[in-house]
Design a protein that fits this description.
Elements: E1 2-5, E2 11-14, H1 20-27, H2 29-34, E3 37-40, E4 43-45, E5 55-60, H3 65-86, E6 91-92, E7 97-98, E8 101-107, H4 118-130, E9 136-139, H5 142-149, H6 154-161, E10 169-173, E11 176-179, E12 193-203, E13 212-221, H7 224-240, H8 242-248, E14 252-253, E15 264-265, H9 267-286, E16 290-291, E17 297-299, H10 300-306, H11 308-312, E18 320-321, E19 328-331, H12 336-343, E20 355-364, E21 380-390, H13 395-412, E22 418-424, H14 437-453, E23 458-462, E24 471-477, E25 483-492, H15 494-498, E26 503-504, E27 510-511, E28 514-519, H16 524-535, E29 548-552, H17 558-570, E30 575-578, H18 584-593, E31 598-602, H19 604-609, E32 612-616, E33 621-625, H20 627-641
Parallel strand pairs: 1-5, 16-20, 22-23, 29-30, 29-31
Antiparallel strand pairs: 1-2, 3-4, 3-5, 6-8, 7-8, 8-13, 9-10, 10-11, 12-13, 14-15, 17-19, 18-19, 20-21, 21-28, 22-24, 24-25, 25-28, 26-27, 31-32, 32-33
Length: 647
């Protein structure tokens, strides 16, 4: 008999011939019908895999990320079979599942695939899927694997040559066979809806010196309805694309003369940035932070000491050489080494701690041109960075205070759906990290305990830590259900060692402080991009560049419109007046396109009664009100979303 432990902690006993699907059926026949993937002792297995030892079993459905991964991995096999049947001379390379769907890299020789071919590929995939063919794994010797692909596919031969004998397996379904490590759904029939999304060029092994292959992207679903919903979501995402909205709203631009990945902020965008900065500065001041400013460059040795040069040197701009012999500077890739040197500028006692240094510091990373994407992937960006230097006794309280600050930021900006991710080391790859194991364990435990105490919905992800320490990342879902990493808090025992940071303890001995890195926004550029797409440009009223626009029916009422404008500004309402010689209908349409929250209309009745007619963005008619009442309405709306931070 073997003991199988389920995620809820319950233990079930079976004979050693039981499969993962047998366990699912034992739980519930209804549940088993939805199970499409499994893990045993943290290793992906087939649902038909026989379990022969005690262990932990996790069963996945389509609703789980691991279930989707297996679904899309299996769909990549179906795509590969379809391509082989449609293009008999095709040579397959690799076809992994990705965040949304899958792709397969193939060598089509002289043939090309374009959008007009998508329907034929989709139809072929659906025909294969309807056959309800089981996915079957089998181990293969290296000799047999090489023989299978010899003279037919040099790409697969290269893959097999890089594998160890005894670790090689094939997956069969229908008439198709592929080199595969496993992790499939039970059969092809579970795939009910198929969409080929695009084709692109992809160099073999990502090396531009190799042949360019064709990458075919696709996505599949267990229901046609889900595919329709996904495509609708994509259309909505196009409308919300921050690059499109940023241009329409006049927030930012890019210039080839300035350089790729270096955004230029236009007046409205600069005002938006400044408003976000002031919002966070106000909260930080209440939380006891001190603002600092550091230069945009630093000596190369600074980043060698911190470890950033060894880890990120290839992603940084190349050193700047000065006329002095051997003197090299780097564009700043991180703010933390500079803040360590600020801390080092004076002696500290335990009575002085914690020290909380904050900076909106611009940093530079040399991202590859193909990876640049609007504001979400740039080469120069501003972090809302802060570093807290504290004693071990203060760590727990300081970490929790930062969590409170992050939650305040999210609440004020409408990000309500999020989970916390405790990002820890990959224990199988210790060379990726610096510092002592004991310090890593203390830091990881501190983060987990703080997340528990604050009642956060959190998960632990191995291998996602920074090279110098574990962190708590906040994974936020936007209005379209997409997940983004926003806000991060990191515990670091290593940089204080590297920079020889000290404080005098109550025992009159010198001790190392612990360093907390934190950035609620992450970077202003990326945060604004995500906020734009989340809100579709309809920011909270307190953040809008313009809160109201005044439209006069004709030039006869411009004088009263200017009076209204002055009164609104006196009430700290950001407004502008549109006196153009255009119809009121056109002015309203343009104001709607600019996402201006309130449209104030001035005509004969308004001037006579010394009132204004107000219309909300989206069409709601508030009607005629006094300027004082309108000011109160705006003030109350702002109070709903922008509450003061209590520290």
């Amino acid at each position: 008999m073997i003991k199988i432990t389920l995620p809820d902690g319950s233990v079930r006993e079976y004979t050693s011939s039981v499969t993962a699907m047998d366990v699912a059926k034992d739980i519930s026949e209804g549940f088993a019908r939805n199970v499409i993937s499994a893990k045993f002792n943290n290793k992906t297995i087939e649902t038909t895999t026989t379990l022969t030892t005690d262990g932990d079993l996790v069963l996945y459905t389509w609703k789980d990320d691991e279930g989707k991964k297996a679904f899309w991995h299996s769909s990549a096999h179906i795509l590969a079979q379809a391509l082989e049947e449609l293009y008999p001379t095709v040579k397959l390379w690799v076809g992994p599942a990705i965040d949304k769907g899958f792709y397969y890299d193939v060598d089509l020789g002289d043939t090309t695939i374009s959008e007009k071919d998508f329907k034929a590929i989709e139809d072929k995939m659906l025909a294969i899927a309807r056959g309800k063919h089981d996915f079957k794994m089998r181990t293969v010797s290296k000799v047999d694997a090489l023989a299978y692909y010899k003279d037919t596919n040099e790409y697969k031969v290269e893959l097999v040559e890089g594998l160890e004998d005894g670790t090689i397996s094939f997956c069969d379904h229908d008439t198709f066979t592929d080199l595969c490590r496993g992790g499939h759904i039970p059969n092809t029939g579970i795939v009910k809806a198929v969409k080929i999304m695009s084709v692109a060029g992809a160099y073999h092994k990502g090396d531009e010196n190799n042949k360019q292959l064709t990458r075919v992207y696709g996505i599949t679903f267990p229901k046609q309805k889900e595919l329709k919903e996904y495509l609708t979501l994509l259309e909505e995402a196009k409308k919300r694309d921050h690059r499109k909205l940023g241009k329409e709203l006049g927030f930012f631009t890019f210039s080839q003369r300035v350089g790729q990945g270096l955004p230029l902020w236009l007046p409205k965008g600069a005002a938006l940035r400044d408003r976000l900065e002031q919002f966070l500065k106000t909260a930080q001041k209440k939380a006891g932070y001190e603002m600092v400013v550091t230069p945009h460059i630093g000596q190369k040795e600074l980043y060698v000491t911190s470890g950033h040069y060894a880890k990120y040197g290839e992603d940084s701009f190349q050193p700047i050489n000065t006329p002095a012999d051997g003197e090299e500077f780097l564009l700043k890739p991180m703010n933390c080494p500079h803040h360590c040197e600020i801390y080092n500028s004076g002696p500290w006692s335990y009575r002085d701690l914690p020290k909380r240094y904050a900076e909106f510091g611009t940093v530079y990373r040399y991202e590859q041109s193909g990876e640049l994407h609007g504001l979400t992937r740039v080469r120069g960006f501003t972090q809302d960075d802060a570093h807290i230097f504290c004693t071990p006794e203060q760590l727990d309280d300081e970490f929790k205070k930062v969590i409170d600050l992050v939650l305040y930021v999210f609440g004020s900006l409408g990000f309500e759906n999020f989970t916390a991710q405790v990002s820890v080391r990959d224990l199988d790859n210790p060379d990726k990290y610096i510092g002592e194991t004991a310090n890593w364990e203390k830091a990881e435990n501190a983060i987990i305990n703080a997340a528990k105490d604050k009642g956060l919905d959190y998960v632990v992800e191995s291998g996602e830590a920074a090279f110098y320490g574990p962190k708590l990342d906040f994974m936020v879902k936007d209005a379209l259900g997409r997940s983004w990493q926003l806000g991060t808090i990191q515990v670091d025992y290593n940089l204080p060692d590297r920079f020889d940071l000290t404080y005098k303890g109550s025992d009159n001995e010198m001790h190392r402080p612990i360093m907390i890195h934190r950035a609620p926004f992450g970077s202003l550029e990326r945060f604004i991009a995500i906020l734009l797409e989340h809100t579709a440009g309809n920011f909270p009223l307190w953040l809008m560049p313009e809160q109201a626009i005044i439209l006069s029916i004709s030039e006869k009422y411009e004088k009263y419109a200017e009076k209204v404008l002055n009164l609104l500004e006196n009430n700290e309402i950001r407004a502008l007046a549109d006196h153009r010689n255009e119809t009121i209908g056109k002015k309203i349409r343009e104001a709607e396109m600019k996402k201006i929250p309130y449209i104030v209309i001035i005509g004969e009745q308004e001037e006579k009664n010394q009132t204004i007619s107000v219309r909300k963005h989206g069409g709601e008619d508030i009607g005629a009100v006094s300027i004082e009442d309108f000011a109160k309405l705006v003030e109350e709306e702002i109070k709903k979303t922008l509450k003061p931070f209590n520290g």
